[in-house]
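Incident log entry.

Two folding requests arrived from the same account within the same minute. Monitoring flagged them as a possible duplicate submission, but the sequences differ. Recording both here for audit purposes.

Request one:
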Amino acid sequence: MHLLARLATIALGCILLERDAAAGELVTDINIVTALDISDSVDSQAAAIEIDGMAEAIRSPRVMAAVKSGHHRRIGFAIFAWRDGAYPELVSWTIIASAEDAHAVSRRLRSDFHAFAAADPPAPPLSPHMTDLSGAIDHAAILLLTAPFTARRSVINVIGNGWDNVGEGPLHARDRFVATGGTINGVVLGFDPVLMDYYRGNVVGGPGAFVLSVEQPSQMADVLARKFLNDIALQDQPEQLARSLR
């Protein structure tokens, strides 16, 4: 029933997408949803590093230059956190078209995450570590299919540090989204070649899909900026850039 409910919601999203596109809403060069891992395997310090790195990356001058180089000179952007069965929204759908927009999103991300963390205590130390990659992908797909902006490209970025150990695994969720024409890219937290291979085989997919890794906390902002830069730049030459990132 859980899978059927997800599929029904995705189908509804497709209907809403067609309806909204016909209404002629705002068009962006790309819509990007980023899914941040806050499952039990990510402690509060690591989660804070994720958020700070993301906040810095969003406002990178390199990323803004890529945004400005697009046909519409704007992107659709959203961020949510994920763990088993919970997907708190950190940045709802917004337009990034200027440095001011990017700085506002950066501030909102930090403040909303700190408010969420204060209201949501960490799990007990001995509780099982549940990592639901398939749920994160399906939730991101629904957000993209119901986005208030039309875009030629839709991208999910999955940031995590472990294997799926809940439900069906990520492969079918990945394939469902890729079948709509979207792309899933991945960022692995920590140096783990085996996990990188797992992401390549089961998580990422679609035109120009790639996986990056953050080997040291100090690299977080730079790697995430590179990720966003390539998300946006891939619209022009996906195969060449994707090969350089593998």
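Request two (distinct sequence, not a duplicate):
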Amino acid sequence: MPAQDTGAAQTDWQPSEVQRERDAWRRRQTRRSAAIAATSTIVLLGVVAAFVVTSPGWERVKETYFDWDKAVDSFPAVLEGLWLNIRVMVVCAIVIVILSLTIAVMRTVRGPVAFPLRLLGTVYVDVFRGLPLLLVLFLLGFGGPALDLTGLPTSALFWGCAALVLSYSAYVAEVFRAGIESVHPSQRLAGRSLGLSYAQTLRHVVLPQAWRRVLPPLMNDLVSLQKDSGLIAVLGVIDAIRAAQIETARDFNYTPYVVAGFLFICLTIPMARLTDRYARKQGFHGAGGML
């Protein structure tokens, strides 16, 4: 058949009556499912709202936690504190990726000569995964400045960031290590057979595959870091939580805490949805070995 005839045939194609009925049925089912989901959600939220609003202490709670005027007054200060949280998260995330990848490589190096590196990496991961983050913040935030180490800042912000980096690097290092070890040994052998050194094989063959596999859990860790950046407030750093605490201390109205929580939610939910979307995409394309 000539090419123009083939194109005309494709242009003139129309779905059969059975196909059109099937498509119409699917659209009806989709609209029906959406209507049921919306109705059930509205009913559930209405029941919860009615239960809360009719409770005996609702008026007191409303006045203490949901004061609109207080929210407006405290919003600029809390937002300015949130900007510090964002900067802390970005800087710490970059350092965490570099440090954790280094530790993961140390733990996966083979041979007896590299045993001290593997031991050091293992001890680091075991210690900082075993210590609560809040305890690390207290130890470094109050003990670090007292050491007065030459060349290091004594600010609570610096040592709070250091605590976040040390704690999170232990967890992220294990994510990287799992990704590296999930790459089949044949990939390493193939790289070496092509004349690549161990470091070249790791850089050009193993790490690119491991990175794609561990990216979803790394994004989840980033979401957690966004929230935990607020813990530096325990050291007196004026971030969103500390700013909310200062605003609350003026009249003991806790609305600024609600404002801070709302801003953190606005920050973390988009990242969480992006993580879910990427994870589904990876699963759909069959990224075997995704953690």
